[in-house]
C-alpha cells in the first residue's frame, strides 16, 4: 500500500446502541463481500472490551461467508483462553460459539508460552506472517478490517498513553508486561499494523465515552493512542458511535445508509 496521507476519519453516529449494531453489521458484511470478491478471503482483527457485544448484531444476518473469515486479535490479555479476561473468551461467548466460523480460522495466542512474552508475541506474529507474507507484497500486513475500541484514557488495543510501545516501528506484534490496566501482561498489534489496514473502525457507545471522544476527534494533535490510528491512503478510518458518545463533539457526522 502506498504511504499517502491519511484520509479524514468518517464519523457515523446513531440514536441507539441497536441502530449502531445494525449499521456496524452491515458495514462488516459489505467489507467481507468486497474482500472475498477481490481475493477469496476476509481478514479481520478484533480488540476486546465492550466491542464484542456489538458483534451480536451479526448473528442471523444473511450474506455472511464464515468459512472465508480469518480472525485475529488486535490485542490479547496473556491469560488462559477460557479466562474471563481473555478477549478470545469474550468474542467466543458473544459470537464465535453462535456462528459457523471454522475454529481453525480463529487465531489465538499460544498460552503455553505465557512465561516468555517475547516468545509468545513472536509466535503470534508468525501467525500473521503465515497468512500475509506470501500473499501481500508489503512490509506490514494489510488487514481488510480492524475493529477497535477506545478507553477513557485514549488507549486502543493495548497501546497506552506514554508507553514506549507507541514508538515501535518494526514489529507487527509486541509484548507489554506493565499494562496500566489489568491484567498487566498482554500482546498488541503495533501502529504500523493498524495504520496499514484497508479499513479500521472504532466502535464506542454511551455517555461515558463523550469526554475522551471529544479529545480524540476534535483535537487529534494531542498524541493520544486512539488519535494516532490513521490508516494511510487508500485505507480509511471510521467511527461507529451512538449519539451519547459524541455529545459535545464538534467533528462533522456522516450519515450511514443501510
Relevant terms:
single chain; 258 residues; alpha/beta; Rossmann fold; 6-stranded parallel beta sheet; 6 helices
Number of strands: 9
Low-pLDDT ranges: none
Average residue-wise pLDDT: 94
Please name the CATH architecture: 3-Layer(aba) Sandwich
**How many strands, which pairing sense, and closed or not: the largest β-sheet?**
6 strands, parallel
The structural class is alpha/beta
CATH topology: Rossmann fold
Secondary structure tally, helices: 6
| Distance separating the two termini | 29 Å
Q: What is the global morphology?
A: globular
User: In CATH's first tier, which class applies?
Assistant: Alpha Beta
Helix share of residues? 10-25%
What spatial order of strands do you see in the largest sheet? 1-9-8-5-2-3
Question: What count of domains describes the coordinates?
Answer: 1
Radius of gyration: 17 Å
- Residues in β-strands, percent: 15-25%
The helix/strand order is EHEHEEHHEEEHEHE
GO molecular function: 6-phosphogluconolactonase activity
Family: Belongs to the glucosamine/galactosamine-6-phosphate isomerase family. 6-phosphogluconolactonase subfamily.
Catalytic activity: 6-phospho-D-glucono-1,5-lactone + H2O = 6-phospho-D-gluconate + H(+)
Function: Hydrolysis of 6-phosphogluconolactone to 6-phosphogluconate.
Amino acid at each position: 500500500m502506498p504511504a499517502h496521507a491519511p484520509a479524514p476519519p468518517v464519523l457515523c453516529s446513531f440514536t441507539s446502541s441497536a441502530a449502531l449494531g445494525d449499521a456496524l453489521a452491515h458495514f462488516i458484511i459489505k467489507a467481507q463481500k468486497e474482500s472475498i470478491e477481490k481475493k477469496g478471503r476476509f481478514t479481520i482483527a478484533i480488540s476486546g472490551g465492550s466491542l464484542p457485544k456489538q458483534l451480536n448484531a451479526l448473528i442471523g444476518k444473511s450474506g455472511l461467508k464464515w468459512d472465508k473469515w480469518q480472525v485475529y486479535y488486535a490485542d490479547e490479555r496473556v491469560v488462559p483462553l477460557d479466562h474471563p479476561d481473555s478477549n478470545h473468551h469474550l468474542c467466543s461467548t458473544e459470537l464465535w460459539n453462535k456462528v459457523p466460523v471454522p475454529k481453525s480460522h480463529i487465531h489465538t495466542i499460544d498460552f503455553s508460552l505465557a512465561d516468555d512474552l517475547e516468545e509468545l508475541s513472536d509466535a503470534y506474529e508468525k501467525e500473521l506472517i503465515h497468512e500475509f507474507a506470501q500473499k501481500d507484497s508489503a512490509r506490514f500486513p494489510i488487514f481488510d478490517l480492524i475493529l477497535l475500541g477506545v478507553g477513557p484514557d485514549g488507549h486502543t488495543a493495548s497501546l497506552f498513553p506514554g508507553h514506549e510501545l507507541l514508538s515501535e516501528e518494526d514489529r507487527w506484534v509486541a509484548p507489554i508486561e506493565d499494562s496500566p490496566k489489568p491484567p498487566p501482561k498482554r500482546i498488541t498489534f503495533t501502529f504500523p499494523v493498524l495504520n496499514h489496514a484497508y479499513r479500521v473502525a472504532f466502535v464506542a457507545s454511551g455517555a461515558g465515552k463523550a469526554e475522551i471522544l471529544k479529545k480524540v476527534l476534535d483535537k487529534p494533535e494531542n498524541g493520544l493512542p486512539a488519535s494516532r490510528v490513521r490508516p494511510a491512503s487508500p485505507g480509511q478510518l471510521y467511527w461507529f458511535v451512538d449519539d451519547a458518545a459524541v455529545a459535545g463533539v464538534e467533528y462533522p457526522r456522516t450519515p450511514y445508509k443501510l
